Amino acid sequence: MVNSMDTYLLEIPLEQTARNLALQFASEQANPQKGKRVYFNTLAVWAVNYFLEWMELETDIDGGDSWNPGMRAVLDVADLVLPGIGKIECCPVMLGETAISLPEVRENRIAYIAVQFAEPFDKVKLLGFIPAVEIVEETEAISLTNLKPIEELLDYLDRIELAIPLLQGEIDELLSDLAEDDPVQAQVREKLQNKSISEIVAILNGVYRSSEKSDWGYEGGKALAGSRNLSFSSHKSSPVEKVSDMEEEVKAELNLIAEELLEKLAEIWGDGDES
Q1: What integer best gives the mean pLDDT of the chain?
Q2: Which pTM was predicted?
Q3: What is the maximum span of the chain, computed from C-alpha positions, in angstroms?
């Protein structure tokens, strides 16, 4: 199985129907530059979809913005919807280039896959992927040397799909228990509600795979809080020291939530138990 996958991943043929569709989408654009981008975006999405279907994963190619005429006309987008999991972005890269450019739209992405093109553009290679949680907000490009092997993508997606139903119930219960009139819990609620369930799972998976169990709470809480400083603009009358105290309380609350969620995820992922 490994050998056949390696051979398959080496080259994915682009069928004539796929190239015709890409030409059609490209011809609808306002200028040749935009048309060229849409052409390669379309083929990248088609190739990744083809690969995932071959690996027996459910996809919804019609459900993405890249297959929506209005959205692809105004956005540089190459997304593919995986029902019950989230969206992945299929990033075209030309032979000889050393990095993939990240799209302007990144909401709800769980991973970015590098799809390499070379003339005469009748086949592509899937070079690897990077989880979305490993990319800081300001990043515009990712070096190909930072990609994970494509064979690890399936395990990554399986872990997210397995965890989503469990975590959805846990998050819903947590949100229902948070008091709306408590400023600290209101901030915690906002942090959780501003992320999709797929994003939360991916964030916690990153912590789970990279941190010691004793650090789950701290690292998980920090990841759920996000890279930006917590904002308390709605409490304008609070002194600076009060705001700082509140920030610490929010962090502490998120630490507890992260630790609790990670312990539950460890039970279903089953590979993080330590004696």
Answers
A1: 85
A2: 0.82
A3: 66
